[in-house]
Amino acid sequence: MKQLLFIHSKAPHGSINAQEGLDAMLMGSAFAECTGLFIGDGILQLLDRQDTTGSGQKNFSKTFAVLGDYGVDNIYCSQSQLSARGLGLADLVIKVKPVSDAEIRQVLARADSILNF
Amino acid sequence: MKFAIAVYGAPFSHQAPLSALAFARAVLAEGHELLRIFFYHDGVYNGNANAAPPQDEPDIRGMWSEFALESGVEMIVCVASALRRGMLDETEADRYEKSSTTLDPAFTISGLGQLIDAGINADRLVTFGN
Amino acid sequence: MKSDLSLDKQGYLLNLSDWTPEVAEQLAANETIRLTTGHWEIIYLVRDYYEEYQIAPITRVLVRHIGERLGRDKGNSIYLMKLFGGKPAGLVSKVSGLPKPANCD
Asked: Between chains, do C54 and A62 touch, taking CB under 8 Å as contact?
């Protein structure tokens, strides 16, 4: 089975990339083995207890919890960029595997195709 | 080699569509196969049949439909992205009870599965815009 | 029963906040379905799912979820199709007052 890697690197609500990137990953799960990698401000998409009432946006962060149901079990997050934002794994809405920069290179290398969001 | 292209950027706001079009032409000129062009995010605006740019600027929608006509490459617009942004063909305009269609007939509305399929079946999926 | 429901041409609620159990009865009746206990179990299951995750489950996921929550004997697509017809995903969303799916025809 082909390995698709979805890279999420944008903050959650400033643009629609985050939401449409999640949609793409959920759709991908029906056709291929999908892996998610959160880097840069994309890590903020995973913040727990988001409240979008003030901004008027849909709070799609609740949807990350279904990734396991959809068979997307490998979710990685850059450890250094998580720490750089003053965050830890306990701040995130789902369980992710923190990876070092060297490990990120391996994740990239394993993918047959990469979709960037 | 088998290529597929994803376009995320809107015409005029971003360089992405013109770069994607130039790349698509180059792919074919070099004798490669181009599986599909998939429009996602604001990229769906590339299919806006009602765009009326100034005459001394590129008619990007017209360039795409000319490209599709001469190359036969399929140009797919993501249905969810298109609906959000009011890019409707006749079927969707009817389904959502909207008074007008907005999508150039050179573009086809289909599901996000077509992007995934491009990722799986092309040797290279090249994305323009972010 | 409310007779002045605002529906679109395909019979989906225009305002999801109009949904009540009585409205569900009517939406189902429009599709010539009479709601039974089996239907209600699924309607509340998908409404809870949507409330929690902000997404309507695709059929494959819904079927597994039904199996886990309502019993293994119900966790198959044949059971779902018996209740909600040949293309259950759209109809389940319609009757349960979830957003109209963008990708079904």
From this structure: yes
Q: Which residues of chain B does A30 touch, with a Cβ-Cβ cutoff of 8 Å?
A: 113, 116
Residue B29 belongs to a domain with what CATH number?
3.40.1260.10
Distance from CA of C55 to the nearest CA of A (A): 7
Is the pTM value of this prediction over 0.90? no
Count the domains in chain A. 1
Q: Which residues of C are catalytic?
A: 104
B45 touches chain A (CB under 8 A): no
Task: Please say if B9 is a catalytic residue.
Answer: no
Which domains, ranges and CATH numbers included, belong to chain C?
Answer: 16-94 (1.10.10.370)
- Per the CB < 8 Å rule, is B83 touching C102? yes
Domain that holds residue B81: 2-50+58-128
Domain count, chain B: 1
Identified catalytic residue from B60, B68, B73, B78: B78
Which residues lie closer than 8 Å to A29 by C-beta, 6 or more apart?
A67, A70, A71, A72
Give the gap in angstroms from C-alpha C88 to the nearest C-alpha of chain B.
18
Range of the domain at A73: 3-49+57-116
ipTM confidence score: 0.84
B62-81: pLDDT as tens digits:
999 999 999 999 999 999 99
